[in-house]
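Colleagues,

Please find the record for the two-part complex below.
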Amino acid sequence: MITALLSLVALGSTVAYAVANGGRLAPVSLGLGALGLVMLTLAIVLRWPTLVPWAILVTASGYVGGRAGKNVVDGWAAVGGVLLLLAAELAIWSIEHDARIRTERSLTVRRIWTLAILGGAALLMNFLLLATAGIAASASVVLAAAGVAAAVGALIVVLRLARA
Amino acid sequence: MTRYSAPKLAGYAGLSAVGLLTALVAARPEFVALTAPFLLAVAAGLAVATPPRLAAHVELDQERVLEGDEVAARIVVESATPVDRLDLYVHLPDGVELADGGNPLALRLAAGERRELDFTLRATRWGAHMLGPLFTRARDPLGFLVWEATAPTRPQLRAYPREDVLRRILQPRETQVFSGNEVSRRKGEGIEFADIRLRAPGDPLNRINWRASARRNELWVNESHPERNTDVIVFVDSFAEARLGDEGTLDLAVRATSAIADAYVRRRDRVGLISFGGILRWLVPGTGLVQLYRVVDALLDTQIILSYYWREIDVIPRRMLPPNALVIALSPLLDQRSVGALLDLRARGYDLAVIDVSPVPFVARPPSGLDAVAHDIWVLRRDALRHRLQRAGVSVVEWREERPLQSVLEEVREFRRYARHARA
């Protein structure tokens, strides 16, 4: 229950920030964010982990959709990305939790530490990414090349998984 | 070990791919920032994932317990590689429950670590229970990959039925030739006085009855009944049973069989066992404590197995039914095949006593309507069946769960005494 609530709070914070800074497209952020929250709640209640990434994707779309037409890169997106990751991890933790399994306390502590380290590393990486994007905004080819490389890398992972 | 990926691996990878491509198409770096953490998580998770090399098995402190007793057990697990999260689950069969401890449980193992996880089991029902299998499930630190395995060894817990202590048991009509505790009806060397007769050459002097000899002016000697053993065959009907919740007629029959076998073995009688049902099992009559253990062990494997095969008494090996043996049958009288076999045994002249382990308490009577009428007719037909057996000279007593076995045996004794007088 605690992890489920924290997950919804993390996703809700991202939605709230997107709505607050959405400008004239704030209703788009609100609509997609609400849909994402509903999907995440359903995923937790129905214990359906496949729905979690979709909820994150919908919320992220609402976040970016609200910023359409703005030329300035939002530095807070770095925090938003980490919040989305934490929302997904906490939701999956909640789904995986089974009260019948007697779990050692050290396991819980270790999982919290793992999440904290992962969140910290993701935050650092996001700051670096956004800083690079800000510096090299004019040299968009470099950014595009890096983006394509990353996208291809992600696709390779997906394909390897599909083969496995 | 079987490896598979958790749903979140494909989800995170797909999310990252879609996010990065959308960032390129829409030229929004924010989308990269929002989805790149998921790619980082996937990369980190796969980088640190190590296939576990572990061995696990279940141990029992005792392999033999009495029904209702508790037994200490432990899962021993050892891993050569670090395992961030290991789930362990021992499947418990019906008749065994967890009394204390955790099952399933989750723990973490360092490289080379060995853990012994204690828990307590309770055997709630008699039987030979196979514990396990023990299922293990290991995950990498971020939970992207899962390895599952099943431990190959499965310990067996043999729970013996709790039995009543019988003070008096049924006396067979005939005894056998070996020494025992049963006073034979025949005359011979023994302690119990039987009769007197004229002395014949070869009679020992210490058998002369001096008082009778003095009265009659010739030598008379005492005759006595020898103490002999008996052959007792316990016939357990395992064709069908009535069951309500955790109790059934077969449970009662098995407990009673155990008590009866124990009582006869203590008297140095030979005890055999026939489990007459879907699977025919038998144990050749024998004596001694070892035989008692054999009987109880054989009982543990008794179970109801559905069968349409029409068995008759001929399928039982001839040496299983020695002449002059007392056959004590424990049957719910639900299957015509076992009823037919009992009548057949009686027709062949065996000394037969039937304890009807009544299924009636295990079948709730419907409150009204045709079902209630059908129930009443069924009860009446059971009475008629018992009467039919009694007319054939079989002592039949209905045993309901609440009655002690000793009281049922006393009723059988009374019937047999009455039946003997009637024959005389």
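The helical segments of chain B are 7-26, 29-48, 210-216, 249-266, 289-300, 336-347, 369-391, 405-423.

Comments are welcome before we finalize the supplementary table.
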